[in-house]
Design a protein that fits this description.
single chain; alpha+beta; 6 helices; 10 strands
Length: 228
């Protein structure tokens, strides 16, 4: 068989295009179910949670980093018999705030519209120094979990991880997203780690699961990342 002719027809998608009633009837119950699920209340927020209420940390960033640690660490521990040292994500990855009141599945999808997966990387002390240098340079409220205490000063910085002074001779297990681990947002220190562990757990699913597990979302600025 030899192809001799190709024909095409342009169909304008506008208000004049009539819907197919048969398709509409079939889709209707699924559409209604989806709308119901997306608007289902799964938690509650006492106050607005945003990424802009602090200089080097934020209430929403703190919540995001802490909740992903809470959901991911049991998976990592089961896989390796070790614990994650801390979590880090990017300021730009937070795409919406959470207003005071009922929190729904829609909030979780607006907060994290991407299909990012959670991964854990083992970073050398040298890579952790690169991570700190990145934070110093960019001066943004990148989400860090509560296991970090980083204080910047004119003389350098003071870093504690899990209440212990940072030891550049050690390696640390850091939770992040697959996007950032591949060098997204110029976080190249996540690339080429000592080891990488794919948790097969979407970041958005971790958010939804955490929201469902607590009655009320609580998060404050606590000085985990600050400048003297």
């Amino acid at each position: 068989m030899v192809l001799t002719k190709i024909t095409a027809k342009t169909i304008a998608v506008d208000s004049t295009l009539q819907s197919n009633s048969q398709y509409t009837t079939v889709i209707a119950p699924y559409k209604e179910k989806m709308i119901t699920e997306i608007n289902t209340t799964i938690s509650y927020a006492k106050k607005d949670l945003v990424r802009t209420d602090g200089i080097l940390e934020s209430s929403l960033g703190n919540l995001l980093a802490d909740l992903t640690y809470i959901r991911a660490n049991p998976l990592f521990h089961k896989l390796t018999n070790k614990n994650i040292d801390f979590a880090m994500f990017n300021f730009g990855g937070i795409r919406a705030g959470i207003t005071a009141g009922n929190v729904t599945n829609k909030n979780a999808f607006e907060l994290m519209p991407f299909e990012n997966m959670l991964v854990v990387v083992e970073l050398s002390g040298e890579k952790i120094i690169e991570l700190v240098n990145y934070l110093q340079k960019h001066n943004k409220a990148h989400p860090l979990s509560k296991h970090i205490r980083l204080t910047l000063s004119n003389n350098g910085y003071d870093l504690k991880i899990n209440h212990k002074n940072f030891d550049k001779t050690k390696s640390y297990f850091v939770l992040t997203s697959d996007y950032l681990q591949s060098g997204g947002d110029n976080m190249v220190f996540f690339k080429n780690p000592i080891q990488k562990f794919n948790l097969e757990y979407k970041m958005r699913d971790a958010i939804v699961d955490y929201f469902k597990s607590v009655d009320t979302l609580n998060s404050n600025l606590d000085g985990r990342f600050k400048r003297k």
